[in-house]
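Spend some time on this chain, tokens included, and walk me through the fold:

. . .
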Amino acid sequence: MKKEFTIFYTDDDLDDLDFFSEVVNSIDSEVKLITQNNGKKLLDALNNPPPSPNILFLDLNMPGINGFDVLTEIRNSDRLKNLTVIILSTSSDDKIIDRSLNLGANFYITKPNDFVSLKKSIEHSMNINWNSFKPNKDNFVYLNN
């Protein structure tokens, strides 16, 4: 893994933010985690770097600017359109997953409830070569087994 690896995670649930932070801290001390608790703060942070994330983990269900709105803004931005966006959601609904893929998310993870599963899904995401990964219906969803 490269030295400076920055993850952004945006979720309106403070317990989820804390849990995610705990897991990331256990993975690698070189990883810098920046969290936001709503879509507006995320877009403000993305539009006013540094820092800039290597990966963005994004919740969908947030009040105000939701994850779909954020994803749409990112994909419509010349500067941000190539940012790796991973949806981290409690929903396993096919319509929501398809919408995420169609709006340009790179990957979809159903939020695991336990430390080990979340750690595995984050590590898996950090080890994908996002420059060559092309999301499609067969590889888009990470299955927590």
Observations:
- The helical segments are 14-27, 39-47, 67-75, 94-102, 115-127.
- Residues 14-27 form the longest helix (14 residues).
